[in-house]
Design goal:
about 675 residues, alpha+beta, six-stranded mixed β-sheet, three-stranded mixed β-sheet, elongated
């Protein structure tokens, strides 16, 4: 810019944008022609194009009379291609190679920055190019020559064979039926090179007519390179600032996907992975690795990643098994997919894999035959489940592939407790689907190399309590002596009985067992699905500090009210299942994690306006006691309260009632005739 005065503007040229040949104008780049070939009007014998692929084939004549043309070589090529006989199918009818075929390939994938320019009378007219094609010689005639050579060799070998005709041997034919193609197999087939070549071959050629440079039709078409109108209305794109105009002519270079090396569809580099949102990164990593400790997951996500955000995202795509994260089944088997081995739908596969994961939450070892017997799935599917998360051991079964992550369990007790709630809900579903027996629900005893069990035995709790008492005993003794000295230093007039109190000091004996008989029947401290942490000050069975009672009661009442307003009638078993799912959706440290007993839950149900319906189920029913306890919302505040109360009273007398009896009873009690739609709504 400093030398602007030394470089003056000598001429200004108006630029116009021509649109007549938009998306029709191609630029052909011919190779360096040999001396015997000229690119003029006469040389183009035929032309054809595939518009979708932007592929062109041109057939051009070779000047056989040119002194630079080798006639003997041309005759030899024609003989190799067509043989001695000439007919309509011959490539070279003159028995001489007198033409050459050129095939095109795209020179640039992005041609939006290129245009053809015509300068006339001080005006520059630009027409955007639709494609730039490079023409290269095609040697398909050599393939035809090789085919002719193989045919001649086959004919000679056939002539030398014996003239005797022998009967053809009878051969057994095996008929095979192809399996239904899965969605994943179809996607792989569509992306294959063979399929793409087939699709390209299916597009039909469009034959073109060539017009020479001096032809009248060429002169007419050439006029379309000029802008048809010079008005501003037709050239609004050029009313831009100089910088915007240059940006339109030369946009910034962007690397095209086609220029990048092709990678398999299931491969993603770490650089590409870290450009995705955190939730997608975790989902892709878990889907590929399947089992991973939390520390390894943080390491793969890179430095600076918030562990709290990772914990929140990983719980959406994985479940906690022995302190490690295992990808959820519905992530591996999405909806509307099926097994590649047996064709079983994804829903059945997810249940089977959930059963395997749940077994590993109970034990380090799983037996393949037991899984197959319960899930009723084919051996290949069961093997896939086990290989996702375990390693086969000879004569022992399948062992979980990672050791128990004790560090994660200690650092994140809220997450562990929440995952236990989820597993309780999954276990309840599995019990209903597979009719699990006690032998399936009870974990087997393993050898010393098995990992730490999930449920702590009573003896272990006793030993841990003793160790904690011994640890705190010295500190408590010092505090007591300090308080005793302070009390003795008070004035004699303020004598109290405190210094005269004698504290019975009993040494802690390692051999003296702690009395745990009152707690042995409580399933190791399991209260409504909660495992209390060691040394936790949080209360159980509803005995809360005064400040927490109101908050817990309010939260519990809100849950019960909203649940019964949606369901109206629930068994105690179903209510507990919904409560466990509600706990699993709450953030860590929520007040409801303090422990809710069954009695506290039932009392809250009755306090929210619900009543227990004593349904007379048959004595031979196989339902559990919790399933026999039925609670219903007595008053919902809508127009159907009276009808609902009549209906509940009917079911309190009989557990099975005909529809016409219900309709008659409702009409008598309510004093109005209900139509079918209203009865259906009350029953629903």
């Amino acid at each position: 810019m400093a030398n602007e005065e030394d470089d003056p503007i000598i001429q200004e040229i108006d630029v116009f944008l021509a649109r007549s040949l938009l998306e029709k104008l191609y630029l052909f780049q011919y190779p360096i022609r040999p001396a015997s070939m000229t690119y003029d009007d006469v040389t183009h014998l035929s032309a054809k194009i595939k518009p979708k692929q932007q592929k062109v084939e041109l057939e051009m004549a070779i000047d056989t009379l040119n002194p630079n043309y080798c006639r003997s070589k041309g005759e030899q090529i024609a003989l190799n291609v067509d043989g001695t006989c000439t007919d309509e199918t011959s490539t070279y009818s003159s028995k001489l190679m007198d033409k050459q075929t050129f095939c095109s390939s795209q020179a640039a994938s992005n041609v939006s920055r290129y245009a053809a320019a015509v300068y006339k009378k001080g005006e520059l007219h630009l027409t955007p190019l639709h494609g730039i094609l490079q023409l290269r010689p095609s040697f398909t005639y050599l393939d035809k020559a090789d085919a002719k050579h193989r045919e001649r060799e086959a004919a000679n070998e056939g002539g030398d064979s014996s003239q005797d005709e022998a009967e053809d041997d009878v051969k057994q034919i095996t008929v095979r039926f192809s399996r239904p193609e899965t969605e994943q197999a179809r996607q792989r087939r569509v992306q294959s090179y063979e399929f793409l070549q087939k699709r390209q071959a299916e597009e039909h050629w469009v034959h073109l007519h060539y017009y020479g440079l001096k032809d009248s039709r060429s002169e007419h078409e050439r006029q379309y390179l000029f802008s048809q109108g010079h008005g501003l209305a037709e050239n609004t794109e050029l009313i831009k600032s100089p910088s915007e105009y240059l940006m339109m002519l030369m946009p910034p270079s962007v690397e095209e996907e086609n220029d990048k090396p092709m990678a398999p569809s299931n491969v993603l580099s770490m650089a590409q992975l870290r450009t995705l949102p955190l939730a997608d990164q975790i989902k892709i990593l878990m889907k590929n690795v399947k089992v991973m400790p939390f520390a390894n997951l943080l390491g793969l996500l890179g430095s600076g990643t918030d562990p709290t955000a990772v914990l929140r995202c990983v719980q959406q795509v994985a479940l906690l098994v022995q302190g490690n994260w295992v990808v959820k089944s519905d992530v591996l088997y999405p909806k509307d997919t099926s097994s590649p081995h047996s064709g079983v739908p994804a829903e059945v596969l997810c249940r089977g894999r959930d059963f395997v994961m749940w077994k590993f939450t109970q034990d380090r070892w799983v037996v393949r035959k037991e899984v197959a017997a319960v899930t009723k799935l084919c051996p290949e599917d069961v093997k896939d489940f086990l290989e996702h998360m375990s390693v086969a051991r000879i004569n022992k079964g399948w062992e979980f592939m990672l050791p128990y992550d004790e560090d994660f369990v200690k650092k994140h007790p809220d997450i562990v407790q929440r995952q236990q709630m989820l597993w309780m809900g999954i276990q309840a579903k599995l019990e209903k689907v597979y009719n699990l027996l006690k032998e399936h629900l009870t974990p087997k005893k393993q050898e010393a190399q098995s990992a730490r069990p999930l449920l702590v035995s009573g003896e272990q709790r006793v030993n841990m309590a003793k160790a904690k008492v011994k640890q705190n005993y010295g500190q408590l003794e010092k505090e007591f002596q300090k308080q005793k000295a302070e009390m003795q230093s008070h004035d004699a007039s303020a004598k109290t009985d405190v210094p005269n109190i004698r504290i019975k000091e009993e040494p802690v004996s390692v051999e003296e067992p702690m009395d745990t008989s009152a707690h042995e029947g409580l399933n190791n401290g399991l209260v409504n699905g909660l495992h209390p942490a060691q040394g936790s000050t949080e209360p159980l069975n509803g005995h809360l500090p005064g400040g927490c009672i109101d908050r817990v009661a309010q939260e519990l009442k809100a849950f019960v009210s909203s649940t019964f307003k949606k369901q109206f009638v629930l068994t105690l078993s179903e209510l507990k299942r919904l409560f466990n799912l509600h706990l699993a959706s709450l953030p860590p440290g929520h007040t409801l994690f303090s422990g809710i007993s069954d009695k506290m839950l039932q009392d809250m149900v009755l306090d929210t306006g619900c009543k227990q319906i004593l349904v007379p189920f048959p004595p031979q029913t196989a339902a559990s006691p919790d399933e026999l306890k039925v609670y219903a919302l007595w008053e919902a505040g809508d127009t159907y309260d009276q009808h609902r109360q009549v209906l509940l009273e009917i079911f309190s007398k009989n557990y099975r009632v005909r529809r016409n009896v219900i309709q008659n009873q409702l009409s008598q009690e309510c004093g109005e005739d209900l139509n079918k739609q209203e009865v259906d709504r009350v029953l629903k």
